[in-house]
Amino acid sequence: MASEFAELYRSKLVSAKEAAALVPSGAKITMGAVISQPPATFKALAERAEAGEVEDLRLYYLLSSGIAGSTVMRDELSERIAPISFFHGGVERALDNKRVAEGRPLLEFLPTSFGRTPHIMIDVIKVDTLMATVSPMDENGYFSFGTNVDYSQPVSQTARHVILEVNPNMPRAYGNSTVHISQVTAIVEHETPLVELPSFEIGVEDRAIGNIVAGFIHDGDCLQMGIGALPDAICAALGDRKHLGVHTEMMMPGLMNLMKAGVVDNSRKKVNTGKSVYAFAAGSKELYEYLHENPLVEGHPVDYVNNPFVISQNDNVVSVNATIEVDLFGACNSEFLKGRQFSASGGQLDFVRGANYSKNGRSIIACHSTAAKGTASRIVPKLSGPVTTPRNDVHMIVTEHGYADLKGKTATERARALISIAHPQFREQLEQEAKALSLL
Prior knowledge:
Elements: H1 3-12, H2 16-20, E1 28-31, H3 39-50, E2 57-61, H4 66-69, E3 81-85, H5 90-101, E4 108-109, H6 117-125, E5 129-134, E6 142-144, H7 152-156, E7 161-166, E8 178-180, E9 186-189, H8 204-214, E10 222-224, H9 229-236, E11 245-251, H10 253-260, E12 276-281, H11 285-291, E13 297-299, H12 302-305, H13 308-312, E14 317-322, E15 325-327, E16 332-333, E17 336-337, E18 340-341, H14 348-357, E19 362-366, E20 370-371, E21 376-377, E22 379-380, E23 396-399, E24 402-405, H15 411-420, H16 424-436
Parallel strand pairs: 1-2, 1-5, 2-3, 3-4, 5-7, 7-9, 10-11, 10-14, 11-12, 12-13, 14-19, 15-22, 19-23
Antiparallel strand pairs: 6-8, 15-16, 17-18, 20-21, 23-24
Helix pairs in contact: 8-9, 9-10, 15-16
């Protein structure tokens, strides 16, 4: 590394306790998402809050992990560090369960699409502090956000305080994924294994849905996939395809396997040709090592990756997402369950719209036909929560019983198509409910 950058690096190197002391009361903090939450710095900040040394902190973020859950997001600290979630996961659901049991309000939730998150954080909320894990600095003075470029990279360009935890296990990613030492307030060195996600067990329904979806993916298509057993099943069924591309919100092991096998070469993409593009990555140590200094993969901010206009510039985009329930008009609730926020809209609508405007694009939303161990239908007359993807945007719905192509269909035709892919035990009931809605 150049001596000028090495000297600047040393001047900003502090302990985790010293870094946490730089966060003033009243700060609006953004923490890195998922894999990039900084354990040592968060532990020190939680200790400050516990000791009453800091208060009125507001923490804006997506996708917390156990790192945040065991430190800055501990419920007993919530009066000093208030979490504001843009996307709920297991940590938030556990906190909500505790709050409901104690008769307290649910955790604060801020609805927005993932692609608009940088705009909300920078221009609307005006967050002033970023805390995230990054790769070691390169010879030109740049740190890479590695697994979590998403909103961290854009925020790093505007935040008053940029506090970074350097972990040699964080991959150095190509793309627009970096922040320069000159923009950094403080550096903490802390080596620890990155968080890994467990592998998912692929069930019978997942394989059936995966095979149906795979039938809509052809040589040269450009893929977006989510997380879970279903995307894993789809990727596993694509081993005989050629010249696939990747432009995805999330990079996951299934897509990595297709890249390693040569199924993905990105040769037919019109944007970022020859490169697999992602906003964040989560999965296995093998995935993180694959991303490190890999010239065939690029991390970019989520307001670029999830921009429907950017997505649509590639032809043959196939977007695959999951949902919780679909009503008889085709609208999807993919984020609300049992009267509470379960996850969030994430990038689902971003990619649905991007695929819809892509030449020969296909947007696929998939789900098991039933929930609650087979006692409830996921095809419903009316949604029980907010609309994540409006009926105007939905293209194709897939369950293990088949697919319903809703593009160009009337409301009546949609209802019939959706009932045909519901679980057989609920079809008669759904027909009666469709008649009550004057759809049949």
